[in-house]
Amino acid sequence: MKKKIWIPIIIIVLLAVLFVPIPSGVMKDGGTRVYSALTYKIVHWNRIHANGTYEKTVVYGPGDCWKSIDALWERESAGFGNRGETYTAEWMEKSERTKTDDELIGHIRITEIYDNCFFASPVIPMPYQIKLNGTLSSEWCVGDQVLVTYENIYYDDHTHHIEADFLTVEQSDFELDPNADYKPVIYLYPEEETEVSVKLDYSGRLTCTYPKYNDGWTVTAFPDGTLMDEKGQIYNYLYWEGETLTQYDLSKGFCVTGEDTAAFLDDALAKLGLNRR
Question: What pTM value is reported for the model?
Answer without folding.
Answer: 0.47
